[in-house]
Amino acid sequence: MSPDQNRLLSINNYYYPRGGAEVLFLEQNRLFEGIGWDVVPFAMRHADNLPTRYETYFPDEIEFGRDYSLPRKLLNAQRVIYSHQARSKLKTLLDRSRPTIAHAHNIYHHLSPSVLPLLRERGVPTVMTVHDLKLGCPAYTMMRDGQACDSCKGGRLYNVARHRCIKGSLALSGLVMVESYIHRWLKLYEANIARFVVPSRFVLETLVAWGWPRERFVHVPNFVDIDRFRPDEPVGTRFVYCGRLDRLKGVETLVRAAARAGQPLTLAGRGPDEARLRDLTDRLGADVRFLGHVGKQELAQVLQTARAVVAPSECNENAPLAVLEAYAAGRAVIGARIAGIPELVREGETGHLVPSGDVDALADELARFADLPDSRLAAMGAAGRAWVERDFTASAYRDRLVALYSTLNPGAAA
């Protein structure tokens, strides 16, 4: 690194495109490398990680649900709360180089916030992108049994164990309860994060309502690489969902709605409910194609052949990238009226909203979109593309972050 080159320490549990948070983390790394920054990743070791010369500094992986030995389970439980190994590994990395700025993404349970005080001690300004509601709700979602939940509001974190919010397990929920109490007692986030980057106003306002100071947050919308998409492709016939195959994402509701409306559906992604959704598809006689995991370029092609993209979530989504990618491909969006999704859908202009979890309402909307003229759907897709080109580009995202970094370290510049 040249003496005047900026260095970004980019932190996330995983170093491969596991989900939306990881995709943004990796795309952000690529974006800053493209403007000449030296990007240093810090994550845990994992068999699926992308290659990096910094892997030797990564702590050992923790993968929940894996059949570890009892001693390893006990060690993992301690590391979930406070990982001395992650802190030690990061210390070695910092001894070799000093970052201009550190930017954390998802670090809960794996790396743990044990690394944050070290960065403050070394004088490295740290920001953190808030991908969920974990800063307020130990179980991330502020939902229970499909309904809004504020049981833990005001510091009543014991409710996460009382209601077994983590996978229905008392043991896991109890561990997360202890983790949350310790993190708050030590003020690991409050005392060590300079600013929290929030992609949606919904999450920002929700965390403020739960007691976080508004001035700690900066709204920076997600971005999409528009150059990967060709928005002038003809409107297709199949509705498309891209994302995790999980009940909380509303995929079961979508399959039922597609069957009820007699509309073809394509699901791009994998997840814990895939087998159950395949069985449901067979029982309903629905026209559903399961593509499994698709790469970036293949995903762009799938979106470009869609009639419309559906975001049927039944949880407190932050700012789903699938909506922005749909617009980049010139496709209208049918979205659930929940959490951050309504911020990304302009009714009648770029798509439409339906009540979350309502099979009949979603089936009616699918049928209505199937009957709309292609020209009308193309116009909505074009409006979405224009919106993305104006507000959700990589350059807009980069400029917002560089401006934020510069307020924390005046030496940071594009």
Describe this structure in words.
It is built from 14 helices and 14 strands. A 6-stranded parallel sheet has the order 2-1-3-4-7-8, with helices on both faces. It has a 6-stranded parallel sheet with strand order 11-10-9-12-13-14, sandwiched between helices. A hairpin with a 2-residue loop joins strand 5 (about 145) and strand 6. Helix 8 (about 250-260) runs parallel beside helix 9 (about 275-285) and helix 11 packs across helix 13 (about 375-390). With about 425 residues, the protein is α/β, with parallel strands linked by helices. The protein is globular, with a radius of gyration of 22 Å.
Briefly say what this structure is.
With 414 residues, this protein is of the alpha/beta class. It is built from 14 helices and 14 strands.
